Amino acid sequence: MMSDCRLIGVPTRDLESAWPFVEEMLFKGIEKVIDEFNIQDLYKFIVEKKMQLWTARCEIGEVTACAVTEVQDYPQVKICRIVLLVGEDMDTWLSLEDGIATWAGSIGCTRMEAFCRSGLKKVLPDIGYKQTHIVMSKEIAQTILH
User: Fold this and answer.
1) What residue segments make up the domains of the chain, in order of their start?
2) What class is the 6-127 domain?
3) Which of 58, 65, 103, 131 has the smallest number of Cβ neighbours within 10 A?
């Protein structure tokens, strides 16, 4: 579905003023699946430019969706990874991912990746993604070595 949504990359200098409009949405996304970092860590990562914040605005003043990306620069490939994608009415804004990919290409990335839940796995092929890996995790028991 086409819409009048627009993608906005939030510059670090604007993060403080943008945060009240996105914090709750981001918190809900983190709370569901991510235990590697919390909302305070996410804010810090964006301030430190380790991650990037993107918003989709589909109505005047309304943030409909948020994405958080990180760039991984490996010896053989530079990747832009979507680590968080949350919002309402996905069919109205998912195509905006192309704007993130364009930005990523402009800084030398040659691949986009998305760490996502199974719901997104169903729709990302519609915008060119294919499954290349399955990530499984396991907690490691902490032991004290004597």
Assistant:
1) 6-127
2) alpha beta
3) 131
By the 8 A CB rule, do 54 and 84 touch?
no
Q: What is the pTM of this model?
A: 0.83
At 120-142, the pLDDT tens digits run 778 888 888 888 777 766 666 66
Is residue 6 within 8 A of residue 56, CB to CB? The reply is yes
Report the pLDDT value the prediction gives residue 1, as an integer from 0 to 100: 43
CA separation for the pair 60, 128 (Å, rounded): 29
Question: Do 129 and 116 meet the contact criterion of CB atoms below 8 Å apart?
Answer: no
For residues 90 and 85, give the distance between their C-alpha atoms in angstroms, rounded to a whole number. 10
CA distance 93 to 105: 20
Question: Amino acid letter at 125?
Answer: P
3-state helix, strand, coil in the chain (%, to 5): 40, 25, 35
